[in-house]
Amino acid sequence: MTQSGRKSADIVAADPEHMALVARALSHPARIRILQLLAEQDECRGAEVFSELPLAQSTISEHLRVLKEAGLVSAHPIGTAMTYCLVPERIAAFTDALDFVADAPACDSYPVRDA
Amino acid sequence: MTQSGRKSADIVAADPEHMALVARALSHPARIRILQLLAEQDECRGAEVFSELPLAQSTISEHLRVLKEAGLVSAHPIGTAMTYCLVPERIAAFTDALDFVADAPACDSYPVRDA
DNA sequence: GCGTTTAATCGTTCATCGACGATAAACGAT
DNA sequence: ATCGTTTATCGTCGATGAACGATTAAACGC
Asked: In sequence order, what DSSP letters do the residues of A14-36 get, joined into one string?
């Protein structure tokens, strides 16, 4: 299931469409922040997320929806509240797919330039 | 400059703004495709990129601009043409920053659910 | 010099995103 | 049964993104 061997390049879904979808889910500071939050807590935390970000509740809910849709976060109800947690396998699958690219040799002898 | 040690989590820019910027650059199938192309060629290739994607030249040029701006690709002129190549360090820095998240324990005992 | 080739830029159009407030739905407690 | 709490959804609006064709700029060959 795309995680038997790391660095296998072909195994991990290197499908551009899929990778782009995951990347798009990651492409907003608020969503990165949410992931970091969940990672720090290690215990899955409820909607203290709402209190941590300077955004309207509805906005954060939308961000969570995007993350869930990308499979990066899972959620389950606890009473009237919600518990969110990371799905590290998904993120790992994504980074694996990217490593396939990262491991390629850089164009010979051209140093990194900013912008 | 953010590439002394891998997996250091704090060193690599875990700055949400920056990570989101890189992710946004990756958030389009055409751009992923371009990166894969460059990775496969290992020799930096010119604008055969233009012939590989079913998009207008101007569109692809724009995608390349985005990738360059994110530091994922570098370019230098060769005669009247251009040579593009990956900047693997950047991608590695990004995946490192993500691994910090991916290495977090999953929320105890909740299986991966799709969507 | 002159045309050719290659890439970047410009201007436009249409679609998608991000943010918000307001509202609705689900649940626990009283 | 009703109220307060918590989260998801809806409708709107402004901003950004993606795509294209046309144009411009640079580097080469002749």
From this structure: --HHHHHHHHHHH-SHHHHHHHH
Candidates 3.40.50.300, 3.10.20.30, 3.90.1150.10, 1.10.10.10; correct CATH number of A16-102?
A: 1.10.10.10
Task: Tell me which CATH code domain B16-100 carries.
Answer: 1.10.10.10
Span A47-64, pLDDT tens digits: 789 999 999 999 999 999
**Protein residue at shortest CA distance from C1' of C10:** B58
Nearest-CA residue to the C1' of D26? B80
Q: Which residues of A33-65 are buried (b: 16+ CB within 10 A; e: fewer)?
A: bbbbbbbebeebbeeebeeebeeeeeebeebbe
- Nucleotides of strand C under 7 angstroms from a protein beta carbon: 5-11, 17-23, 26-28
Which pLDDT belongs to residue B12? Answer: 52
Q: Rounded distance, CA A53 to CA A28, Å?
A: 13
